[in-house]
């Protein structure tokens, strides 16, 4: 059992002191997906982001980072452009954006995104489209590719960008969400952007489908967070095949937080006290 990955303990999902560490260890030095360039077409409509450096992929995706100390884009997301270059994102117009708060830690949402064990039970409509028995996740240095059917690697593009952004091209359109952390560890803000090249009617049909999946996840995350905060769930062992995406990103968080701790020479007793 030694070689199996364990989950982060529940305290990591409920600690505001840990969030302060994550701000510096995880969010500051990452590349965040802002969206395809089509998000920024109307000069009169401000789209607010803080950008210290930015990068645009050949296929039209725009990324930003908040620190000059972040690894160069090509190193941070090595191999990513081979995947994103399959889609011309400049051909997908921005159709709608929505944003709302959820009562869960940002990692609770990413936990759910990074595995599909819950899909069959939680997402009956999605599971009809992509039967979860084939589902697999391939992890790279700072991103994961989800493959719904390994026999059809070109059907749909599902990507997770460490730490908080996702990109989902399927069902004729594309959605992207960011799970924004907050100083209250049990609260996050969800920001969704929707892109589609079809008619209004086609877009609305697509929108209804993807919103259904998002609402199902939202409910699951709020319930999971309740259990984390009440002490119902502590920590456990991750399934090495079906939860390798969760293991990957949680290990990245754990490593980044511990490295910051060592760099700042903070006594181990402090780490023990907040976790
Ligand atoms: Fe889900």
From TrEMBL:
EC number: 1.14.15.7
Record protein name field: Choline monooxygenase, chloroplastic
GO-annotated biological processes: glycine betaine biosynthetic process from choline
Source superkingdom: Eukaryota
Domain Aromatic-ring-hydroxylating dioxygenase alpha subunit C-terminal span(s) in chain numbering: 91-143, 157-258
Molecular function terms from GO: 2 iron, 2 sulfur cluster binding; choline monooxygenase activity; iron ion binding
Transmembrane segments: none
InterPro entries: Rieske_2Fe-2S_sf (IPR036922), Ring_hydroxy_dOase_asu_C_dom (IPR015879), Rng_hydr_dOase-A (IPR001663)
PANTHER family linked: CHOLINE MONOOXYGENASE, CHLOROPLASTIC (PTHR43756:SF3)
Family (UniProt): Belongs to the choline monooxygenase family.
Reactions catalysed according to its record: choline + 2 reduced [2Fe-2S]-[ferredoxin] + O2 + 2 H(+) = betaine aldehyde hydrate + 2 oxidized [2Fe-2S]-[ferredoxin] + H2O
Function: Catalyzes the first step of the osmoprotectant glycine betaine synthesis.
């Amino acid at each position: 059992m030694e070689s199996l990955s364990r989950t982060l303990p529940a305290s990591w999902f409920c600690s505001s002191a840990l969030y302060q560490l994550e701000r510096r260890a995880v969010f500051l030095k990452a590349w965040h997906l802002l969206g395809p360039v089509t998000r920024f077409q109307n000069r009169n409509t401000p789209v607010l982001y803080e950008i210290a450096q930015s990068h645009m992929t050949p296929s039209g995706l725009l990324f930003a980072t908040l620190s000059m100390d972040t690894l160069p884009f090509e190193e941070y997301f090595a191999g990513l452009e081979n995947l994103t270059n399959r889609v011309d994102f400049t051909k997908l117009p921005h159709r709608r954006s929505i944003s709302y708060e959820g009562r869960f830690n940002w990692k609770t949402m990413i936990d759910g995104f990074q595995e599909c064990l819950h899909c069959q039970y939680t997402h009956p409509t999605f599971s009809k489209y992509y039967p979860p028995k084939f589902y697999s996740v391939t992890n790279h240095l700072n991103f994961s590719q989800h493959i719904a059917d390994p026999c059809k690697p070109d059907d749909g593009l599902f990507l997770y960008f460490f730490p908080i952004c996702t990109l989902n091209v399927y069902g004729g359109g594309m959605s992207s969400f960011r799970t924004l952390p907050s100083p209250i560890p049990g609260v996050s803000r969800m920001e969704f952007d929707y892109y589609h090249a079809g008619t209004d009617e086609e877009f609305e049909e697509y929108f209804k489908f993807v919103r259904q999946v998002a609402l199902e996840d939202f409910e699951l995350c709020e319930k999971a967070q309740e259990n984390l905060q009440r002490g119902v769930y502590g920590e456990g062992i991750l399934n090495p095949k079906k939860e390798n995406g969760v293991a990957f990103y949680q290990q990245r968080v754990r490593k980044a937080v511990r490295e910051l701790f060592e760099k700042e020479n903070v006594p181990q007793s402090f780490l023990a006290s907040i976790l």
